[in-house]
Design brief:
This protein is of the alpha+beta class and about 240 residues long. The chain contains 11 helices and 7 strands.
């Protein structure tokens, strides 16, 4: 259900597998940083500054460009999944220092009775679709939504996660190296590889079958069927959001 809207953002809420999911549909590119940069990057910043201080948005944007060869944060992500732990840690520490955009999110959590002061009372996850950036770069935002939903399901559905990790473990070394090169996944742990690999399968519908055994192909088909049977219940939430405005 839609719980908030203005001319640039729609926020939806659903309860999935007993956990609370907020979906953000952004129709202006610079809103991604405004709403989510500090939440996503505050821990990364604290590797550089141990004081625990939360920078304002302009300072974060300058810092990010400095360490990433001038990249604009607003133009990096077509979509994003944010886990409960990161949301919990951010609001627990900084609920009294929120920006205007972050306060909008906080108030929606209050209305849903999910947070009290700095205490998240229930499991919460975010999925964000940076719709304007998708349209600017001619990226299918429905596929981006599918990708991010897979990350969510990997986090909240144990059976789905086990299917993915068990299949990824059985992939041959050559195929794993192909995945790491393709998605530049050279700094993360094995579970991250598996999660990102499965999300890309759903987004692109492509698997390099020449590097797979018949057993691998069967397992991948099972993963896709499991995901599709679940995703179909929620696929229209963002896809048809323009019609619902």
């Amino acid at each position: 259900m839609k719980i908030y809207k203005n001319k640039n953002i729609n926020i939806y809420y659903e309860k999935i597998k007993g956990q609370n999911i907020l979906f953000f549909d952004l129709s202006k590119t610079n809103l991604f940083a405004s709403y989510f940069l500090r939440l996503l990057e505050f821990k990364e910043w604290h590797y550089y500054d141990k004081s625990g201080e939360l920078l304002d948005l302009k300072e974060y944007l300058k810092w990010f460009k400095l360490i990433n060869d001038g990249l604009d944060y607003n133009e990096l992500y077509y979509g994003m999944y944010i886990s409960h732990k990161l949301i919990k840690d951010f609001f627990k520490k900084y609920f009294e220092d929120l920006s205007r955009s972050e306060t909008i999110i906080y108030k929606q959590l209050q209305k849903l009775n999910l947070i009290e002061e700095n205490n998240l009372k229930h499991k919460i996850h975010f999925i964000i679709i940076n719709r304007q950036l998708c349209e600017d770069d001619k990226i299918n935002y429905q596929k981006v939504y599918e990708h991010e939903f897979s990350h969510l399901l990997f986090e909240i559905d144990k059976e789905y996660k086990n299917m993915i990790e068990n299949t990824y473990t059985k992939l041959n070394k050559k195929y794993k190296q192909y995945i790491i090169r393709l998605y530049n996944l050279n700094i993360f742990h094995e579970s991250f590889y598996a999660d990102e690999w499965a999300a890309e399968i759903h987004r692109t519908r492509k698997v390099t079958t020449s590097l797979l055994s018949n057993v691998n192909k069967k397992n991948i088909t099972q993963i896709q069927k499991y995901f599709n049977n679940y995703f179909k219940q929620y696929k229209d939430l963002i896809w048809n959001s323009k019609k619902n405005k």
